[in-house]
Amino acid sequence: xxxxxxxxxxxxxxxxxxxxxxxxxxxxxxxxxxxxxxxxxxxxxxxxxxxxxxxxxxxxxxxxxxxxxxxxxxxxxxxxxxxxxxxxxxxxxxxxxxxxxxxxxxxxxxx
Length: 111
What we know:
mainly alpha
């Protein structure tokens, strides 16, 4: 996933606090994922973009809160690396995001 690559770049290159790196990488990945999901995964580029973008923003914000909570728990409570937290969070948010995208965000009109 693009998110993990971006996180690795920001975390290892800039040497900032992991919370800032997680947020920065997530923000950039949201834009890429919306475009790719809209055009490729769900093939809904013919649908109106603005309503999809609004629904996607709600889903992305929910995923973001879950991501931060999971990574923080893994790092602060379990003493593991931010990478371990991100890997766990990616599994959870990928499944959640795909299901919500398929059933709500990119649902074709009339379906």
